[in-house]
């Protein structure tokens, strides 16, 4: 196997007899890298085509919040493992899910209950999720090859490491300093709040306008008024369909376990559409917080309930989020179907148009409707309904089309996380991070009327290297801006900056109309490092 030993990344076309092939397989299994090859029968000999030895893994670099800030409490701590070859270059191809073993154990041999998961990111790196079931002191982390060779030094996760259910809130500025929040997107919060100068908003006026505009629309709008007092959460809902407040309740409970929020009030829109539209106001506009914004509204945008829910559920092994991306990147680019793909319900007229385009260009686009709800009378034209398929199967195709639903399509985060190119419709609607992305850098834009969709698909087919670069850029953007730490940072920053536009002291209200969102402390076996958790337990 001399040619592999000289250059482990060599690709060759050669002829070998069956004995040599057996030796090659044994050689590959012995090394800390994989060989991929294809065998075709050529008569008396077997031709081994494109023998490829993946780069030899020399070491692993560990980085991320769990390594750099181990005491930062999140639903799941996480870090990244980047493999490096013998030349000191980052490996950029998957080495396989079993190429490394991540070992985590208590320093000094003390017992501690936790588990961790390792996910192949299919780019030469791995995402590691660490979930604590009790407070642990000083954990050690190291990475080994599948043959047992150490690839990294021992990293000490120093300190008392609390699980996420500990009620140990810090001063919010101390938490922000510890978390080292990336502030790349924080200017978007200032843009959202620009209509309201600091200290200009009387919240009594806000509630009066909310009740006048939407309070009687029992089915037309769904809102919740949150009051934070002494880091306790109280709420009053407006409308019939307010079940989604469960998601915001969970988010606020998780936040107030980590930080002490200022006493404040705000109104959250639980519906799809932004509420406070741009217009010539005879009265001052109302600062409403929403999960979705638009170019023609003034709503202040929080991370969507979908993004926040996935963040809160990172402690679950089966959760599909930005850490467990392996199911979105498992199909190599060269094995994907070379056409665009879309599935969804009929929640926007352009989605019907997408079906027509697919019928006219079946060689370039596979688009179909899974449910008819808004345009049921058009089923005979745009139907029949097709069966839903698992989201991970979307990525059998090289190109993913993202078209708005009722508002912004909340699937975009996970589409960007996959290893297919995203073709995103131009839209007035956006989630909190959209305005931080760049066209043709993180995704390929298509016109709102989809008139250039086929042109863009053809461009992508003709420019695979550029397409792969856009996919890589999207992955980097998500890792820097939409991971769990960054989602908590953005949520907290919105609440802090929103509070600054309010006039203080806040007006008093009849608290009998409010219910408390109860914060349950961790159980005694958790052994939280702070006294606050035990204090709250005794108060219950």
UniProtKB/TrEMBL annotation:
The main location is endoplasmic reticulum
Q: What is this protein called?
A: CAP10 domain-containing protein
For this UniProt entry, the molecular function terms from Gene Ontology, in alphabetical order, are: glucosyltransferase activity
* Location of the protein in the cell: Endoplasmic reticulum lumen
| Protein origin, superkingdom | Eukaryota
List the record's Gene Ontology CC terms alphabetically. endoplasmic reticulum lumen
Q: Which residues form the Glycosyl transferase CAP10 domain?
A: 260-505
One Pfam annotation, family name?
Glyco_transf_90
Q: What is the lineage of its organism?
A: Eukaryota, Metazoa, Ecdysozoa, Nematoda, Enoplea
What is the purpose of this protein?
Protein O-glucosyltransferase. Catalyzes the reaction that attaches glucose through an O-glycosidic linkage to a conserved serine residue found in the consensus sequence C-X-S-X-[PA]-C in epidermal growth factor-like repeats. Regulates Notch signaling by glucosylating Notch in the ER, glucosylation is required for the correct folding and cleavage of Notch.
Q: Say which species the protein is native to.
A: Trichuris muris (Mouse whipworm)
**Entry-linked Gene3D superfamilies:** Immunoglobulins
């Amino acid at each position: 196997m001399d040619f592999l030993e000289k250059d482990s990344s060599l690709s060759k076309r050669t002829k070998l007899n069956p004995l040599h092939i057996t030796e090659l397989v044994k050689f590959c299994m012995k090394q800390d890298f994989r060989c991929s090859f294809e065998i075709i029968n050529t008569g008396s000999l077997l031709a081994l085509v494109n023998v490829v030895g993946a780069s030899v893994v020399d070491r692993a670099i560990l980085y991320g919040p769990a390594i750099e800030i181990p005491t930062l409490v999140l639903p799941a701590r996480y870090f990244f493992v980047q493999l490096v070859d013998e030349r000191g270059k980052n490996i950029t191809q998957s080495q396989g899910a079993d190429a490394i073993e991540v070992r985590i154990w208590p320093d000094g041999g003390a017992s501690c209950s936790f588990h961790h998961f390792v996910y192949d990111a299919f780019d030469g790196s791995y995402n590691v999720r660490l979930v604590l079931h009790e407070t642990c002191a000083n954990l050690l982390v190291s990475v080994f090859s599948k043959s047992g060779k150490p690839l990294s030094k021992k990293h000490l996760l120093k300190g008392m490491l609390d699980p996420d259910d500990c009620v140990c809130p810090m001063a919010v500025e101390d938490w922000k300093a510890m978390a080292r929040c990336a502030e790349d997107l924080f200017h978007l919060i200032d843009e959202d709040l620009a209509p309201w100068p600091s200290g200009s908003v009387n919240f009594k006026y806000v509630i009066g306008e909310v009740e006048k505009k939407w309070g009687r629309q029992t089915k037309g709008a769904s809102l919740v008024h949150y009051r934070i007092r002494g880091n306790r959460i109280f709420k009053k809902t407006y409308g019939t369909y307010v079940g989604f407040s469960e998601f915001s309740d969970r988010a606020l409970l998780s936040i107030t376990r980590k930080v002490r929020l200022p006493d404040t009030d705000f109104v959250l829109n639980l519906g799809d559409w932004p509420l406070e539209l741009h217009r010539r106001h005879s009265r001052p506009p109302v600062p409403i917080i929403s999960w979705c914004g638009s170019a023609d509204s003034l709503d202040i945008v929080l991370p969507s309930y979908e993004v926040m829910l996935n963040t809160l559920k990172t402690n679950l092994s089966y959760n599909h989020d930005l850490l467990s991306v392996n199911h979105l990147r498992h199909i190599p680019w060269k094995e994907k179907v070379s056409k665009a793909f879309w599935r969804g319900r009929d929640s926007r007229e352009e989605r019907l148009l997408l079906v027509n385009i697919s019928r006219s260009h079946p060689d370039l686009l596979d688009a179909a409707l899974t449910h008819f709800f808004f345009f049921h009378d058009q089923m005979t034209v745009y139907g029949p309904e097709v069966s839903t398929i698992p989201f991970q199967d979307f990525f059998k195709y090289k190109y993913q089309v993202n078209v708005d639903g009722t508002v912004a399509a909340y699937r975009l985060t996970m589409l960007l996380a996959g290893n297919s190119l995203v073709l995103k419709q131009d839209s007035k609607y956006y989630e909190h991070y959209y305005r931080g992305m760049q066209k043709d850098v993180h995704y390929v834009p298509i016109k709102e009327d989809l008139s250039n969709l086929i042109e863009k698909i053809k461009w992508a087919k003709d420019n695979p290297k550029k397409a792969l670069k856009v996919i890589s850029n999207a992955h980097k953007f998500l890792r820097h801006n939409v991971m769990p730490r960054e989602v908590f940072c953005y949520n907290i920053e919105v609440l802090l900056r929103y509070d600054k536009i309010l006039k203080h002291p806040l007006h008093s209200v009849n608290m009998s109309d409010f219910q408390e969102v109860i914060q349950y402390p961790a159980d005694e076996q958790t052994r939280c490092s702070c006294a606050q958790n035990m204090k709250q337990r005794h108060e219950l």
